[in-house]
Amino acid sequence: MAEQDEFIRVGTTLYKVVDQPLIDGGCVKKRIAWNSETLRQDYGKDRMATVPKYDGFCTVPDHVGYKPVVGKFLNLYEPIGHRPQEGSFPCIRSLVEHIFGEQYELGMDYMQLLYLYPIQKLPILLLVSEERNTGKSTFLNFLKAIFQDNVTFNTNEDFRSQFNSDWAGKLLIMVDEVLLNRREDSERLKNLSTTLSYKVEAKGKDRNEIGFFAKFVLCSNNEHLPVIIDAGETRYWVRKIERLQCDDTDFLQKLKDEIPAFLYHLQHRTLATKKESRMWFSPKQIETEALRKIIRSNRNRLEIEMADLLLDIMAKMEMETVSFCLHDIIPLLLCSQVKAEKLQVRKVVQECWKLSPAPNGLTYTTYVYGGEGRYQPRKGVGRYYTVTKGLLESL
Which residue range is the domain that position 287 belongs to? Predict the structure, then answer.
């Protein structure tokens, strides 16, 4: 038995610290629960007295002033092995420019915040492209190379599992081929991106609440419906990634070689933005056409048909607004071969368009189909809704 084998005791549990071999030839540090009697058999009764003792675990992220022990608690957050050093980083610069395009400075701020302020909440970064060889996976591997053991790759099923102890204390949670097209998946992802604490659950162990600071980076080949994003959603930063012009098989290694120079630059760079929301960036700053495309794709068919119908009425009658009650819309939709129930129409009007009815039953002018693409005005009385052309066009 090697005397340099490392053991620790956390609370009342003994652990052996080992380097577990990986498939790529590297190693990852693991803590394996050990038996105190086995320790005495292998190393003698005096070895137990030399084992470092801690009251428990904690997770305190820091990349510049990292502390392996905080008070009497062992820090589960892993140190990164890079030592910042002044130099150039042309390959990293080209990758960041490729991923963030015209939002390059925002992208650099994103990287700087990850490195210097790891507990700062950041938007969910979603990289989409239907083309292959775009560099999305390279960017994920680059982030893994920087932040090392504080980054984990998840699958779509990992988000749905009740056991989350393997990823709840990480800085970055990344999914290479994301497809979270269920409403509950989307809601959970949004909640995780802004929550300050989270209950960790491991198989056979009690749930334990910890501070949650993880950021999400998702990639998808589906530009239309990778996740459910509703209108007005401000937690996603969606970038459409173009195809790479050249293919360098050694590019990832070149990126790794430039990491010390890149971290030095991040330490001395001035942020281009100021904190404007809980996720640092304002919704306007990170709004993109790729985000609007996903929002449009998430709208249901009935909403689209209703918007087209009302816009058609406005165009034919040369008006900027139109008023209607829910029972006015259903026969108009039937003329377009669209069957809808009153409950479905109400959901679109109130939940999707955020419209409120008139406070009292009042007289209003609505329209009925007159045949041959024409509409005829008709007076009605009721608690009507009014929608504007601007609202429908923005959808």
Answer: 90-297
- The pTM assigned to this predicted structure is 0.74
| 45: DSSP letter | T
In this structure, the answer to whether residues 258 and 122 fall within a common structural domain is yes
Per residue in 158-216, pLDDT (tens digit) is: 666 655 566 777 889 888 876 666 667 777 777 777 777 666 655 555 566 667 888 98
Strand partners, 17: 6, 31
Contacts of 178 (CB under 8 A, 6+ apart): 126, 156, 218, 219, 220, 226, 227
Same domain for 283 and 322, yes or no, is no
The residue written with tokens 């979270």 in the block is 180
H helices present in the chain, as ranges: 36-43, 90-100, 104-116, 136-147, 156-160, 183-194, 251-257, 259-268, 283-286, 289-298, 301-317, 326-335, 342-347, 389-394
Is 244 contained in some domain?
A: yes
Q: How far is CA 304 from the centre of its chain?
A: 27
Q: What is the CATH number of the domain that holds 261?
A: 3.40.50.300
Dist CA 113 CA 278 (whole Å): 13
